[in-house]
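INFO batch 0412 | record 1 of 1 | parsing
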Amino acid sequence: MAEFDGLTRSFHAHFTRDAKQRLYCGVDRNLDELTDPGRQEMDAKVEEARGLVSELDAVSRGALSFDQNLDLDLARLMLEAEVHELTYEFNGRTASAQRPTAADDIGDPLFQMFVLDPRPVGDRLSDITSCIEGIPEYLQALLGRLEVPVRRWVGIEVEQVRGLPDLFSALNDWGRREGWSDADRLRAACDRAQVALTDYVGRLRDLPVTDHFHLGSDCARRILDLSGIEMSFEELHRMASDFLVRMRSEIGELTERLVKKHGLVAGTTPDELHRFLAKRYRVELSDGDLDQIVRRYEEERERILTFIEDRNLFPILDDQDMRILRTPKFMEPQIPAGAMTAPPPFREGTRRSLVYLTLSEELLDEHTELTVPGMMLHEGIPGHHLQLATAAAHPSVVRRHVDARDLAEGWTTMLEDYMLDVGYAAEIADEVRFVGKRDISRLGARVAIDLFFMTGDRKYLEVGVDCDLSSDDPFVAAGHLLRTVT
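INFO prediction complete | emitting tokens
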């Protein structure tokens, strides 16, 4: 037992090695520094992870319980997955030598400390300021790691970095409102960081780039194995194709019913019906105030919670909460409509999630009276927030570290149907289900796209969908598939 406890402590220490990991996990220690992006730190992580794998392999498991043995199996998968992620190569280089990560490594921890960190304001502002002061040095180390980055990733990075000044401005405003004694230091740090980021973008754009980003079949197979996915590429591809056939059938049946219900012309297509419903059920805004959409989501959250509690459908943690807010600018390129951040699994007290909403006039059709219920069921309670807040309370240290996204999506997409089946939003259930099925079809497309992106084999895009896949640009071809199915 002592050996198992010691390994668990070492595992936890490894996966809270840097400040970004600690913040994500809710370990409030030494949060005044940015993640070291240098090759030397990555090599040290790999060496430490391999050492822990060797220690795991040497454990005598006979005296351990089923749960302890399962923890060790999960720990080994996580450690091996990390080693693979930091060491696999394509284009003759590691992924880290081809992927710029400044926007995420800088923006994510600053924003987390800004909106989710429960510590006193002064402590948070002090750590934020120290992190911002470290940006010039961080950028130099990152540039030293990059060789020939992937063009697409450079484009995403540049777009995200453009949103960081908005975050700096919000942090400065916060410091002034709080009357923080070091507000001038924060402002000066932001000014220096902005100069460094401008220089970084210029130097990043000067680097030679590659358009090739496919990993190859062997590397892709290893990624699936380390995720615990035992199906072959062909089985996954067939599953995606069958799923899309089923979705088309269900969407067709819903289209027939809704065309009759709304008195539309016979032969109205699902695309035409979708546009009609988006207009018919648009969220009413006064003076174009998009923040009213955020309030509409908050109202829906309360309605869903009341519905669940009245029927005793799911166990709800007493000390849980969810904040709904607009997506910060630096995250918008990666969040087209909405997303959520799970509760930090090792933070004491309230299990709090963040739900992001990307709002603009152009995206109003993504936030209607039909999509708001689906989004809240998926991201909130009983979806991701309930599942991950509950998981964060698990007694196992290892399992609180495990990020099982495949299980998360299975849970939430099942619930979108289940909640309508038991009577939620009964008056517009068919309408909500129709737009939900259109949206969930993305999962079939994404399996096909992931297989193609990983292996480079274009045949995986062929999933029985009538669309143009002929473009030489893999992103254009993939985009055509995704747009067609949704």
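INFO post-check: The chain has 21 helices and five strands.
INFO record closed
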